[in-house]
Structures are given as C-alpha cells and as structure tokens.
C-alpha cells in the first residue's frame, strides 16, 4: 500500500500479541475522529484487520527472557533494519510505541536522534519491576506516555515525565457483567461438573516449560476429586494463535490421560466463562482472569540463566499483575522450582473448596483500576500530538 500524500501518517510498533490487540483498538478509536490517516508499522492480525500497512509481522518476535531473545536476535535485527528503512522512505508524522520496551525504546532513541517526530508510548515499560534506568530513556526520547496501571502515575510524576493514566484497556474487553460474582448475583451461573482452564502461554518456550507440568497436575486433581469427592472434572487447554495444534497434541499424547483434555482455540474470555478455576502462565492473561473474578493459580518457569539474572534485577514482591495492583497475593504464585505438579494440584484442590472466597477477593482489582476507555483516551492524546 502506498502512503496517500494528503493523509497524515502514523507508524505503530508492537512486538507481542497483547500489544497488537491493544494497538488495534487504539487505531480503531483514532479512525473515529479522523478516518483519513495512513497507518504503517510492525504488528499482527489485529493491526492487519485495521488496515495497517505492515512492513514486519510480529509472529517472529514473541520472545521473553535473555536466552530466548538472544535466539531471536536475527529476526529482531531484521525488523529494526526495516523500521529504519521505512522511516527514511516514508517518514511518519507520529510514532506510537506499544509495550515491547527492549525494541521500542531503541526505536524511540533512533527517531529522536535522526528525525523530528513526536513519540507516544502506550502501555509503558514496566520500570516499577526492573531496569529503572529506562525512566531516563523515556524522559529523553518519549514525548508522552499513556499509562495503564494506577501506581505508575506516581513513578512518572516523580521522574517528571509527561504522562497520563488512561485506565487499563482490559476493562473494556472484560465488562463487569461477565464476572462470576455478577453472573451468580443474577442467577445466571449454574452448578455443573468442574471445569479447569489451563493457559500455558503464547510462546513455544512457555508450552515446552509449562504444559507438561499442567497436565501432570491435572491428572492428580482428577484422581483426587474422583476418589475423595466422587466429583467429575474436565480440563480446557487454551491454544494461542502463535502455537501449532500439533505441538500441544504431541505433549498430550505422551501424557496417558489425553481423554481429560480438550484443546480450545478461542479467546481467553471463552475459557473464563466455562471455567471454575484457571492455571495460567504469568502474564497479561492473569489480569484478564482477575477482571472475570476467576480464581487463578499463576505459574512460570524460565531458563536457569534468565532466572538467575531476574532474581538480581527484579525488585517486585509479586509476579502477577492482579497481586501487584492490590498489593496482596489474591492469586497464588508458584514460580520456577515451586511450579511442580504436586504443589499446583494441592493448591487447586484447596481453591476448589473455597471458590467464592477467591472470587470475592478478585473484585478488588476492578475497583483499583478505575474506569475503562483507555483506547479512547489514548486516541485523544495521539490526535493532540498529531
């Protein structure tokens, strides 16, 4: 697609499926106020759906952790080289960065060094977790940050960075009327045999590290419920678009208990609606679960090298966003060596006996996040900068 000369040009850079999703919503809101804008960038299916002229697809960029990023160095370099080329041949009027800080802060630095382009950062780097030195880079290379977590406001204000708390975009995707307490309040939830959602992540390394453990834990949970409580349970495995069906099937085939599981290629929301409990890889999906008030066990395992480095640099008490927001472990966390089938099954069995308590605890998250409209508010900021 060629850039219509008479149109303003916004370039959008994302690096992961969640960023692609939120960037898609943002572009949709921008188009409402000004339909005649040309969009280009790096993204996936959601940006494509909005008609963005993609010069690189994020399918090759979803890496997390030091060793994983090193393995994808060639793809990351290729994407950055294309970004520089596109800047030169078709300079945008505004650059919007969405999450993916390692790549996007480098992009912001390059832009500010070589061009006079305004830079908006949506879903800002998690400086509260680690690498606070990034605040200096954000202050130097970013014109405005649109913040999505309430406690970030204080950090950015202290650093004297132009920033606005726009609310969390997930509030619009997960309205209160799909939460478990809401459904029960209006008599819309029904008692059935138990369903547990397994959400092993959207990266191949996460599937390799976590799915086998989840399956073993599921087998233990099923055995306990049948033997001790005569209760049936089934398990839904969430399959991200970035993961091949055969990859999950191969892990299931070796488990010996394949009949307990159903692979679901559906949005996370559909898993939450069907499930009584979720076991999920640490990430944005756990905040989505919190907004639906689905009791959740957060698990994660990373490479030994990445974990060793993370212990030295990460300065937060919790891994889960819901826990960080309320400053309390309302979603149990079993990380690294604690992420065992035994510990997961024991925790799950306890939580299944206390579901309403955990559901009620999770209602605090929505109250702390405030109102929705993050995409609309960020679109207003973008148009002001444009």
What's the topology here?
Layout: E1 8-13, H1 17-33, E2 37-43, H2 45-49, E3 53-57, H3 66-71, H4 73-89, E4 94-98, H5 101-114, E5 118-122, H6 134-141, E6 144-147, H7 152-158, E7 163-165, H8 170-173, H9 180-185, E8 194-199, H10 204-229, E9 233-238, H11 245-253, E10 261-264, H12 268-274, E11 277-281, H13 284-291, E12 296-300, H14 304-313, H15 321-326, E13 333-335, H16 341-352, H17 355-369, H18 374-385
Parallel strand pairs: 1-2, 1-4, 2-3, 4-5, 5-6, 6-7, 8-9, 8-11, 9-10, 11-12, 12-13
Helix pairs in contact: 1-18, 4-5, 5-6, 10-11, 10-16
Morphology: globular
**N- to C-terminal distance:** 22 Å
The beta-strand count equals 13
**Highest CATH level, the class of the largest domain:** Alpha Beta
- Return the average pLDDT rounded to an integer: 90
- Give the helix tally: 18
Structural class: alpha/beta
Strand order of the largest sheet: 3-2-1-4-5-6-7
The CATH topology name of the largest domain reads Rossmann fold
Share in helix: 40-55%
Radius of gyration: 21 Å
CATH arch. level architecture of the largest domain? 3-Layer(aba) Sandwich
**How many structural domains can be distinguished in the coordinates?**
2
CATH homologous superfamily of the largest domain - what is it? Glycogen Phosphorylase B
Q: How much of the sequence is in beta strands?
A: 15-25%
Low-confidence stretches: none
């Amino acid at each position: 697609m060629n850039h219509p000369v008479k149109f303003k040009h916004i370039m959008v850079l994302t690096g992961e499926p969640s960023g692609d999703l939120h960037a898609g919503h943002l572009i949709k809101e921008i188009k409402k106020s000004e339909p005649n804008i040309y969009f280009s960038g790096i993204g996936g299916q959601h940006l494509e759906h909005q008609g963005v002229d993609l010069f690189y697809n994020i399918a090759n960029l979803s890496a997390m952790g030091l060793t994983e990023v090193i393995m994808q160095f060639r793809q990351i370099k290729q994407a950055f080289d294309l970004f520089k080329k596109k800047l030169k041949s078709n300079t945008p009027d505004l650059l919007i960065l969405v999450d993916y800080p390692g790549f996007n802060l480098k992009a912001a630095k390059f832009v500010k060094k070589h061009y006079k382009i305004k830079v908006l950062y949506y879903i800002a780097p998690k400086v509260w977790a680690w690498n606070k030195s990034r605040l200096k880079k954000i202050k130097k290379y970013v014109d405005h940050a649109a913040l999505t977590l309430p406690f970030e406001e204080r950090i950015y204000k202290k650093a004297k960075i132009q920033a606005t708390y726009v609310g969390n975009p997930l509030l619009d995707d997960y309205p209160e009327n799909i939460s478990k307490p809401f459904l029960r309040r209006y008599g819309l939830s029904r008692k059935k045999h138990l369903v547990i959602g397994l959400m092993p992540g959207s990266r191949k390394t996460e599937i390799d590290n976590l799915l086998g453990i989840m399956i073993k834990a599921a087998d233990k949970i099923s055995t306990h419920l049948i033997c001790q409580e005569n209760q049936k349970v089934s398990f839904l495995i969430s399959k991200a678009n970035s993961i091949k069906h055969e990859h999950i099937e191969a892990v299931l085939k070796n488990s010996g208990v394949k009949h307990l599981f159903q692979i679901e290629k559906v949005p996370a929301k559909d898993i939450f609606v069907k499930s009584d409990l979720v076991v999920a890889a640490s990430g944005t999906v756990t905040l989505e679960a919190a907004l639906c008030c689905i009791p959740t066990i957060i698990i994660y395992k990373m490479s030994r090298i990445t974990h060793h480095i993370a212990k030295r640099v990460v300065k937060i008490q919790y891994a889960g966003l819901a826990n960080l927001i309320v400053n309390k472990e309302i979603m149990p966390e079993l990380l690294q060596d604690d992420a065992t089938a035994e510990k997961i099954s024991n925790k799950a069995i306890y939580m299944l006996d206390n579901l309403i308590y955990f559901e009620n605890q999770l209602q605090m998250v929505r109250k702390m996040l405030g109102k929705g409209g993050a995409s609309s508010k960020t679109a207003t900021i973008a148009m002001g900068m444009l």
